[in-house]
Amino acid sequence: MVSRGRLRPPDSAGGRPRAHARPGASAVVGLAVLVAAVVPACRPEPSAPDRPVPANIPASGLTVYKFARVVTAPHEVVEGGAVVVDGKRFHSVLAAGEPLPAGAKVVDHGRYTAIPGLIDAHTHITFCWDPAWGDRAPHDPFQIAQSKAQLQPLVEANGRTLLSIGVTTIRDLGSDNHLDLETAARIEAGELVGPRIFGAGDGVWSSRLAPKESTRPGQADGVEQVAATVRREIAAGVKVVKLWASTGSDDDLTGERTYSYEEIKAAVDIAHAHGIPVAVHDTLGTVTDDIVRAGADSVEHPRKLSPETLATMRARGVVYVPTIHHNRYYRDNIDRFGFSPDKRAAFDAFIADNIATAKAAHAAGVTIVMGSDALYTAFGESTRELDVFVHDVGMTPMEALATATTDAARLLRADDRIGAIRPNYLADFVVIDGDLSQIEHIHDVVAVVKEGAVVFEASATGN
């Protein structure tokens, strides 16, 4: 069940509930029950018992949430502010001392902070790890659970985990047999509780990626096949077109070109003619100049980009999604995934190049957006990318927040309805214990609200 209108008020004793506190630790006390239990996504632990997830039912009337501070958008903070929610949307933001709407429900969150719901602009929510596989799994685990019936509960668990860390929207860049689109539709219809999904469907990839990808749909070679595949994906309902323009995934850190400029340009032109943005994978950065020249909206993963390339990206508004923490995740799980031990040094070198490129891009004024590239067991780590942005790339906490809110919403072409706490925007917000003077406070999630519904409470899960 999804609780609406009442979050638990802060502990009067001043205890600091944390999303990862030990069981039994002092947390949030009060009304409201969250039955949409959040479990670790696709982790090698016993699965949660099956239970129906009811539809989200819009609330009637206004609810006022009072905070120590409201971050309506990066660099916009209302001290002592309050958020007024009307059903699924924000009604208004009140300054300290402003009169509250007559008859509204009031929830006082004392010392807590409200921030906009977070956006992860690069996930693979359907690439799962089944707990039944135990502590180790074959090299390519998502290929094992090939049926949608096997994958669906794992995908739902991934979604609940994303909500638990404050991610209310994802741009999902590659699925299998359009399972991401089906899941997105069920979430939109209220059949499931999960993040809003801007899905890329199966994506478009070259036979040069075979044989690893040979069992997946989406293969296209040559301008005509690429064009036909893009049209098919648009007809299926994708919100973004994903193109793999180079090799490189998992422990393959190569970046060999798989698509020509003409093929990339064909994909971009068709997608843009339908109002659909385009994301292009380029691991090494060897194809990025052509990706930018073709007019793509974002380039995923690249490293070793030249100052000239970065300047062109800034001038043309091409977004950089570096996915740095993702390779730390692979490096730290080399044994678990069955990667060769000698890959550790290669991962370290890739990460160093990735950070250096992100620093240069940030200094050059290129828009950077948070994308975790989460898959398998990594969904609880998505927002660790923000730590990297602050501590390694050199962003301020507010600049890092922009990569997962306003700038990400703009990339999704959805900045008129998500990414900020503004009147008439969808009522997505995260309640955190902290003021964002330190980026680590973004992980101290007390509760998460999506479209006016409480979809996660730390105290309801024993955290």
UniProtKB/TrEMBL annotation:
<protein>
    <submittedName>
        <fullName>Amidohydrolase family protein</fullName>
    </submittedName>
</protein>
<feature type="region of interest" description="Disordered">
    <location>
        <begin position="1"/>
        <end position="21"/>
    </location>
</feature>
<feature type="domain" description="Amidohydrolase-related">
    <location>
        <begin position="114"/>
        <end position="453"/>
    </location>
</feature>
<dbReference type="InterPro" id="IPR032466">
    <property type="entry name" value="Metal_Hydrolase"/>
</dbReference>
<dbReference type="InterPro" id="IPR051781">
    <property type="entry name" value="Metallo-dep_Hydrolase"/>
</dbReference>
<dbReference type="InterPro" id="IPR006680">
    <property type="entry name" value="Amidohydro-rel"/>
</dbReference>
<dbReference type="InterPro" id="IPR011059">
    <property type="entry name" value="Metal-dep_hydrolase_composite"/>
</dbReference>
<dbReference type="GO" id="GO:0016810">
    <property type="term" value="F:hydrolase activity, acting on carbon-nitrogen (but not peptide) bonds"/>
</dbReference>
<dbReference type="Pfam" id="PF01979">
    <property type="entry name" value="Amidohydro_1"/>
</dbReference>
